[in-house]
N5-carboxyaminoimidazole ribonucleotide synthase (Albidovulum marisflavi), 350 residues
Amino acid sequence: GSVIGILGGGQLGRMLSVAAARLGYRTHVYEPSANPPATHVAEKVVTAPYEDAAALRAFAEGVDVITYEFENVPTAALDLLESLRPIRPNRRALAVSQDRILEKDFLSGIGLTTAPYAAVDDEATLDEALAHIGAPAILKTTRLGYDGKGQARIMDRSEAPAALAEMRGAPAVLEGFVTFTREVSVIAARGLTGEVAAYDPGENVHLGGILSTTTVPATLSASERTDAVLLAARILNALDYVGVMGVELFVTPGGLVVNEIAPRVHNSGHWTQNGCAVDQFEQHIRAVAGWPLGDGSRHADVVMENLIGDDVLKVPAIARETNAAIHLYGKAEARPGRKMGHVNRVRKPA
Ligand code: ATP
Ligand code: MG
Ligand code: MG
């Protein structure tokens, strides 16, 4: 096949389209909102809601394989698309990562460590969960959260009613607070024939719930670095996964704790664009198109900095720096909290 369908036209869909073009593929993007970042990069952008069966059908019929940059595609839309074309990564990976409880059940089921957790629907179940898990804890909506949205910290049990109110009636999960020394993520890929490749783990710093920087190499012991990569491979194999995945980890004195997984290219993998011969976007296109995986070994130290909101005003100054690769997403309006681009500062050869 020569056309790759991408659900979602944000910056990830844009950068996937660029990578696909470099490999000789055309991309069609399906995106409910108008003028998404992928617009001038994809061959075609379909602007229609996920409820529009006719638009979904036409989209699927125009492509050879379907992938996604956005994991919250409604189930009915996926059912229709899957009846027409292969979806990679597969439906199970999507189902598991769409729901924080299914995700933690899956991860603990394959022997990995997560924060202690319990489902919360109302005051009574929250009370019970807090009695079991204790405070501090974090209450999160089970679905649709990102960039720290849909979360409330409970430092003391007296804060429980306010936290529950913040869920606005949505099903939630209470997670015990993990006292981590640092946060890292592994960007890993699995090909159609089952081979696995992982990038060197990156160390992540969040500000206000949003990823601010990713640094490679991460500060990890040799055994932690190996553990991180091996546990990511275990996740991909267990899901019979095809494509790139981001695995977010907490580093603790007792070992690595899995925070969450993202069944797609990941913001904390953007450093690979300037640190590896084959970056996460090319790797994902290779996997979903059935190619062999590429060489993801790291040839430089990199600090990736997200340009969020008005950070984008720093671009003219950054453009004067040496060894700073600028990636902008073509978004017109720099609203607070909006990811406008990122810069990869390449420090020195590894
Ligand atoms: P993303 O944009 O990464 O998808 P998200 O909204 O899904 O974010 P999480 O990754 O669950 O949010 O949490 C955001 C951040 O909050 C984490 O990276 C971590 O810093 C902190 N955090 C979340 N859960 C816990 C926990 N159980 N213990 C300690 N810190 C946590
Ligand atoms: Mg998340
Ligand atoms: Mg996260």
Observations:
- The domain at 182-349 is CATH 3.30.470.20 (D-amino Acid Aminotransferase; Chain A, domain 1).
- Residues 146, 260 surround magnesium ion (ligand 2) (CB under 6 Å).
- The longest helix spans residues 222-238.
